[in-house]
Inverse folding.
């Protein structure tokens, strides 16, 4: 039977050509391969065509910013801002979401879905960045300046996401290809090596974006300054003080501090280096909706007493960037971050989510200068931030006093912003000393988060799990 | 393509030319004398529609509804009376002017029961494949709105579960088990020869909370318009459907007109539906006892007096401690009314028959409020054959419209879980009561509207012409158009006022407008030849099909006020959530060769070569085929005189089918427009990894069957054994997140085997002139296992599937009950690492697929009364209430057993652990128990699915035919299962309702 069918098919094919599947001569109707080929639908584009038009590349880039804003480590709803604030000592958590309680109680388990989302959303963005890098390399119809700009931005995004991954997971794979077969079995890379790759991508990105003009009035997409700001941060984290100072100085030269504390988080703020625009709904930042307590009871997060008492008397930030609310009976009062003031119900767009701002660069340079022995320069930088907050010049004199003062300043300047406090505790090796005191479940190994359990199952090459999990 | 279409048009044109020619050339014989009379059955009831021909002359007619006839025939002519289900009778006129004839019922009707096999039809007697069927007479006895509802329990090998009791919801169906790891079990649906897309076009954004997004297109088909449903199960029957036959084929044939006097039929019915089983939940006093106990056990009682914490336990500190509401009666305790009216006109001559029918149905819900479902259907059919019988034409069209208005979420979950002392629904002024913003009023869901309107057009034409003797050319053409418009509103007024939502900041309207239309053309050639000992039937055909689907989902947010919420143009911001279209093209050549030797050796070969656009270049085509054999051994000389065995047949088949049921464009490396934007730049998001090796799933079916008839087929048994193996499985192979994707759809070297035994039994137990009793019984014993899955241990399916076990298993922790000393649940630590974790301790396996299922029906006929009882049974396990409620003391109501059987002090032996407030994460929350062996228990049942009592009013004048009936659906369920319903075990879906129907049928 089978051979007969085969023979018949062969016969048809030889008679009517390979592309035609068969023929019923009596009826005279042909069935051809051409019939069962369809055009892609209007909402789908084949990759090749995306990279031959700058506007569609722009659209592919926009997806990266959108994904960062909406999910994972960068987003206001699920990212470092709230999660690392309760994991460290900035916010208390009043809810009973078991995933978040694991953070608050420093008992994060490998199946934690928040951590899984950090991991997988980051690599999703990295895939997108790599697809752009590869697409641009193969593109023929783009002008060179366009190629440089997109390539620079994609490399920045790739480096940025890896810098976040390495900061919470330690050793992680540095992904530079879209090949799923390779990425599916990839191994982890040492923290040092990851930082090396980050720096090399960023240096390349800075070079590529040096000469290309980027329309970036609202600072909504990464440009050369953003790449340099991240470089400064990464150099600081890797103890490369001279390079950190140089990069921070470059950035500081291009921006100025706002005089008014109330202006710092507005979308027009001149000290913003990079910010992500909010979505259609909510009409303002996710950070504001997460952190502002609309009524008591009903709070999720509130500032810890420890952070409140860290402000010196007369610190303008204590009054300008913090607000409070009480219950109807006036029996309890809770304090919350009030840097972003417009929640989703404010229909006018006032604020964007800021990810790099000038104050951090001053503090980076101050710290780098201290380490390099330039205490005068370090004090100058620190005082820029203190004076803006209405505080007198620092009284710190020695290198160690200054380092303490800078750390204390970072705590009150950068509080509840993308986990700065947590990273400061971690990189200075103080996490256990500070948090172990009042967090009963704290363990030394909590300085790293667990690699998500299901990822270890999906790719055993990622083993071993981080210590303590 | 274009060329094919033009040729098709030419073909149609030629056909009509032939028919014209045929009619013009026919000459009728001059009339002779008239003979009239009546035809009745043996009990004296007039028989309508009896075929009547004058032997050896080209004259014929049909008896009217009162059984009368008149025909032109000479005094020496001979009349032949024939009708399906009766023995033919030859009556010489012998000079009479009036002839009275009684036709005897034929119990041995096997040879005349004709089954629709799709491209061809075959008699029950000669079929080589396995085809299960349900006819209109059985379906009519069941008051259901969806054709799948009428099939439940009646067909062996077909497992159908109703997914919700909400009108307009869907059903899940499995023909001989789940073949594919990706979970798609939908069979191919063919309505009057036209493939009918059964996949819901509902949008998650809109209908997830009310009908689980499953807006079944099959709801558009009125069960009363259906003549028969056939389910093709084995390779012999399904291989001719090639790549789409793997999960079986469901053929729906609509009603046709019958010759005779023009007849009018009216059918009216009213149903009352209610939830058939309420759960036994805690009352206020019991509830508060365990609540307080839970708070205290967690060491939180110190906070009980602190107002800042009141929002965690308003039921204990703020609400009336004596108030009691039975939320099940309040929220799902109403009566759903269904009114159904149908009018039809049918009739015609021997050559041309017609049927036009219109129906209207309205069904309300058991929820409070005025939600309702409306459906209107119009169905028509014209059938014509030329005088010389060479040209035939059949046209059917159906149009239906559905309009479903429901609350946007199912209130069942609230009914089962709301605290019994929760506040009143309305305040004194009749507004929603928010009790100082301390609860979310469940009736707010009634302010949030869900609406869906669909319209469906189904049209098909079958034209055939006998070119020369034995050779027929025909074409089947069909068109379907299904459109769906749905919306969901979320007004700010439905939210707790404490959020300060305003229409500007919160109110939203989401709309979904979707379309699917398809056309199909299938030209065919059939050659039939009978020789002395051998007959042969050859069919050759080709298919061109195209289906396009479009969906547009939009959301508008921010309205000036809530009364403008239905108008998208009034929205402040409008975003497109989804704008998708897809195109599916399909091309095939198919054929069948049937050989019958000596009336008892039958060979049936079927095959198909298929091309589908769902696969990448070079992978689009596949070949499928089957061989079927039957031996009617009762025809052998040795047995032909047996008085006991009246029929015996052995049959078997083997063949391959496939499945391309995996969505369009899956093989492409793509970016998708998501509808979102960043800073005004539309977003293109990576959506697919290029995978050119993407091909068919293959399903190989093997079947053997034995059919036996005893005592002139009064007792008939049909037993089959099957084994289906599915390989080349298309699964979303899970990828590590480092790839940027969670999975890649590709063919995987895994084999799933479904085997089983099916038994169908029917008998005419008693048959006297006044009393008749017949019984039907079917049982299916399915067995399924994952035969092979290379690399399962290292894949992410490692925790879901086990080689040698079915796909329907769940892996669970093993519960060791409650520790009498600590009052905590104890879970078996399989790997002994001191931790209970999903990686090493989910080792307890339960299979949730039925072990066996079937139905038992009895029909009693006593004069003008007919009484039917149909029982459905299923042996299975399912998730029990422990899946939802494992710990006493949570802020939600639960079964009263959590109060009575909870652990309180050391030494207690109880089923449920110590009470806990559920507020302390990670401890006492019963999460492991919920996923343990204790959460699965027996969910077997015997259900009185249907009882029907019909009375036919006797001795009416003028051919008037009146029937009154009372029917009950889903009346009683005998089960040990504790939840709302043993078949549908989710506690957030309304269980299927118990329905009682009173109906009247009038025909004249």
């Amino acid at each position: 039977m089978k051979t007969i069918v085969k023979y018949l098919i062969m016969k048809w094919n030889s008679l009517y050509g390979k592309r035609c599947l068969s023929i019923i001569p009596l009826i005279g109707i042909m069935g051809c391969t051409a019939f069962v080929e369809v055009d892609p639908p209007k909402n789908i584009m084949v990759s090749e065509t995306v990279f031959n038009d700058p506007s569609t590349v722009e659209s592919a880039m926009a997806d990266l910013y959108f994904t960062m804003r909406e999910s994972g480590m960068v987003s206001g709803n699920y990212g470092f801002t709230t999660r690392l604030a309760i994991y460290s000592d900035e916010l208390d958590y009043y809810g009973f979401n078991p995933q978040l309680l694991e953070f608050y109680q420093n008992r994060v388990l490998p199946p934690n879905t928040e951590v899984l989302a950090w991991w997988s959303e980051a690599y999703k963005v990295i895939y997108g960045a790599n697809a752009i890098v590869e697409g641009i390399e193969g593109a023929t119809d783009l002008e060179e300046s366009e190629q440089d700009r997109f390539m620079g931005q994609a490399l920045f995004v790739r480096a940025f996401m890896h810098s976040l991954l390495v900061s919470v997971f330690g050793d992680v794979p540095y992904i530079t290809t879209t090949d799923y077969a390779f990425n599916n079995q990839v191994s982890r890379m040492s923290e040092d090596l990851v930082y090396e790759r980050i720096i090399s991508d960023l240096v390349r990105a800075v070079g590529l974006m040096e000469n290309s003009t980027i329309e970036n009035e609202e600072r909504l997409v990464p440009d050369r300054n953003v790449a340099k700001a991240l470089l400064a941060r990464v150099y600081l984290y890797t103890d490369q003080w001279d390079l950190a100072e140089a990069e921070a100085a470059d950035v500081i030269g291009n921006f100025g501090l706002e005089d008014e504390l109330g202006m710092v988080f507005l979308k027009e703020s001149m000290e913003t280096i990079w910010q992500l625009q909010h979505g259609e709904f909510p009409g303002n930042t996710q950070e504001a909706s997460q952190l502002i307590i609309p009524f008591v009871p009903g709070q999720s997060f509130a500032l810890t007493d420890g952070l409140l008492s860290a402000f010196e008397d007369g610190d303008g930030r204590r009054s300008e960037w913090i607000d409070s609310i009480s219950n109807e009976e006036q029996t309890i009062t809770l304090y919350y971050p009030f840097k972003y003031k417009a929640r989703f119900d404010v229909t006018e767009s006032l604020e964007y989510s800021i990810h790099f701002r000038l104050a951090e660069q001053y503090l980076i340079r101050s710290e780098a200068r201290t380490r390099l022995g330039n205490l005068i320069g370090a004090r100058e930088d620190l005082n820029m931030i203190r004076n803006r907050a209405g505080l007198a010049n620092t009284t710190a004199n020695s290198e160690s006093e200054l380092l303490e003062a800078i750390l204390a300043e970072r705590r009150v300047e950068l509080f509840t912003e993308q986990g700065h406090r947590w990273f400061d505790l971690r990189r200075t090796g103080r996490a256990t000393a500070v948090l172990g005191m009042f967090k009963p479940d704290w363990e030394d190994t909590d300085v790293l988060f667990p690699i998500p359990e299901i990822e270890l199952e999906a790719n055993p090459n990622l083993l071993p799990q981080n210590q303590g999990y | 393509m274009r060329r094919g279409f033009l040729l098709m048009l030419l073909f149609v044109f030629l056909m009509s030319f032939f028919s014209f020619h045929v009619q013009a050339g026919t000459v009728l014989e001059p009339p002779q004398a008239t003979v009239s009379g009546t035809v009745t059955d043996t009990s004296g009831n007039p028989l309508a529609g009896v075929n009547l021909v004058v032997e050896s002359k080209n004259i014929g007619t049909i008896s009217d509804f009162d059984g009368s006839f008149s025909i032109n025939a000479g005094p020496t002519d001979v009349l032949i009376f024939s009708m399906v289900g009766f023995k033919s009778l030859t009556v010489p006129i012998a000079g009479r002017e009036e002839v009275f004839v009684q036709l005897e019922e034929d119990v041995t009707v096997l040879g005349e029961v004709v089954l629709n096999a799709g491209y061809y039809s075959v008699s029950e007697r000669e079929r080589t494949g396995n085809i299960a069927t349900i006819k209109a007479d059985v379906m009519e006895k069941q008051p259901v709105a969806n054709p799948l509802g009428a099939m439940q329990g009646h067909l062996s090998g077909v497992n159908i579960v109703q997914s919700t009791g909400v009108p307009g919801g869907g059903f899940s169906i499995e023909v001989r088990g789940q073949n594919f790891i990706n979970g798609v079990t939908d069979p191919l649906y063919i309505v009057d020869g036209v493939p009918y897309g059964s996949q819901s076009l509902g949008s998650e954004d809109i209908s997830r909370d009310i009908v689980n997004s499953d807006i079944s297109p099959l709801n558009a088909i009125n069960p009363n318009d259906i003549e028969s449903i056939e389910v093709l199960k084995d390779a012999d029957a399904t291989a001719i459907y090639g790549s789409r036959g793997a999960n079986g084929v469901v053929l729906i044939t609509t009603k046709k007109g019958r010759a005779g006097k023009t007849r009018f039929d009216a059918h009216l019915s009213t149903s009352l539906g209610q939830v058939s089983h309420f759960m036994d939940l805690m009352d206020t006093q019991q509830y508060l006892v365990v609540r307080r106990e839970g708070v205290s056990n967690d060491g939180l009682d110190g906070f009980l007096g602190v107002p800042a914490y009141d929002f965690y336990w308003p039921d204990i500190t703020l609400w009336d401690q004596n108030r009691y509401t039975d939320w099940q009666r309040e929220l799902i305790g109403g009566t759903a009314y269904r009114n159904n009216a149908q009018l039809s006109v049918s009739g015609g001559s021997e050559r041309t028959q017609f049927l036009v029918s219109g129906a209207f149905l309205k069904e309300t819900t058991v929820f409070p409020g005025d939600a309702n479902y409306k459906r209107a259907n119009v169905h028509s059919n014209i059938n014509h054959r030329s005088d010389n019988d060479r040209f035939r034409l059949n046209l059917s069209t159906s149009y239906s419209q559905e309009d479903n208005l429901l609350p946007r979420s199912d209130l069942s979950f609230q009914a089962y879980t709301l605290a019994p002392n929760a506040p009143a629904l309305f305040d004194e002024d009749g507004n929603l009561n928010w009790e100082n913003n301390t609860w979310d009023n469940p009736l707010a869901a009634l302010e949030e509207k869900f609406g869906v309107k669909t319209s469906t057009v189904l049209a098909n034409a079958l034209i055939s012409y006998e070119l020369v003797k034995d050779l027929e050319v025909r074409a089947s053409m069909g068109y379907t158009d299904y459109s769906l418009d749905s919306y969901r509103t979320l007004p700010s007024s439905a939210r707790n006022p404490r959020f300060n939502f305003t229409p500007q900041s919160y109110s939203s309207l989401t709309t979904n407008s979707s379309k699917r239309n398809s056309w199909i053309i299938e030209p065919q050639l059939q050659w039939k030849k009978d020789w002395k000992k051998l007959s042969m039937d050859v069919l050759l055909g080709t298919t061109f099909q195209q289906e396009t689907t479009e969906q547009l989902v939009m959301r508008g947010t921010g309205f000036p006020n809530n009364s403008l919420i239905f108008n998208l143009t009034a929205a402040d911001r409008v975003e497109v959530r989804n704008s998708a279209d897809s195109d599916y093209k399909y091309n095939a050549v198919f054929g069948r060769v049937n050989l019958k030797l000596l009336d008892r050796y039958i060979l049936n070969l079927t095959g198909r070569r298929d091309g589908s656009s769902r696969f990448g270049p070079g992978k689009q085509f596949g070949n499928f085929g089957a061989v079927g054999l039957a031996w009617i051994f009762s025809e052998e000389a040795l047995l032909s005189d047996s008085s006991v065995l009246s029929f015996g047949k052995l049959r078997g088949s083997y063949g391959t089918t496939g499945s391309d049921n995996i969505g369009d464009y899956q093989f492409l490396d793509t970016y998708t427009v998501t509808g979102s934007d960043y800073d005004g730049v539309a977003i293109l998001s990576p959506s697919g990894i290029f995978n050119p090796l993407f091909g068919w799933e293959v399903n190989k079916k093997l079947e053997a069957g034995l059919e036996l008839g005893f005592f002139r087929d009064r007792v008939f048994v049909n037993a089959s054994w099957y084994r289906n193996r599915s390989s080349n499985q298309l699964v979303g192979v899970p990828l590590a997140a480092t790839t940027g994707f969670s999975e890649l759809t590709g063919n995987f070297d895994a084999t799933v085997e479904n085997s089983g035994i099916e038994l169908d039994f029917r008998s005419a137990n008693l048959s006297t002139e006044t009393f008749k009793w017949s019984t039907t019984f079917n049982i299916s014993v399915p067995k399924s296992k994952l035969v092979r899955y290379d690399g399962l241990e290292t894949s992410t399916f490692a925790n879901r599937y086990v080689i040698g076990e079915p796909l329907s298993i769940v892996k669970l922790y093993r519960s060791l009950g409650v520790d009498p000393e600590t009052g905590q649940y104890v879970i078996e630590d399989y790997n002994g690492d001191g931790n209970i974790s999903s990686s090493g301790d989910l080792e307890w396996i339960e299979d949730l697929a039925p072990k066996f299922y079937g139905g038992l029906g009895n029909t009693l006929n006593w004069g003008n009364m007919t009484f039917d009882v149909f029982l459905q049974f299923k042996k299975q396990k399912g998730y029990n209430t422990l899946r939802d409620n494992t710990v006493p003391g949570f802020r939600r109501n639960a079964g009263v057993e959590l109060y009575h059987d909870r652990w309180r002090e050391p030494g207690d032996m109880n089923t449920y652990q110590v009470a806990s407030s559920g507020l302390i994460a990670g401890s006492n929350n019963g999460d492991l128990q919920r996923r343990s062996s204790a959460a699965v228990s027996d969910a077997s049942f015997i259900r009185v699915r249907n009882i029907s009592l019909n009375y036919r009013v006797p001795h009416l004048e003028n051919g008037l035919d009146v029937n009154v009936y009372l029917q009950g659906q889903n009346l009683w369920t005998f089960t040990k299962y504790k939840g709302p319903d043993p078949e549908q075990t989710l506690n957030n879906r309304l269980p299927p309702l118990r329905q009682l129907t009173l109906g009247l049928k009038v025909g004249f």
User: Anything to note?
Assistant: The first helix of chain B runs from residue 2 to 24. Residues 752 and 786 of chain B are 5 Å apart (CA to CA). Chain B touches chain A through 101 residues (CB under 8 Å). The first strand of chain B starts at residue 34 and ends at 41.
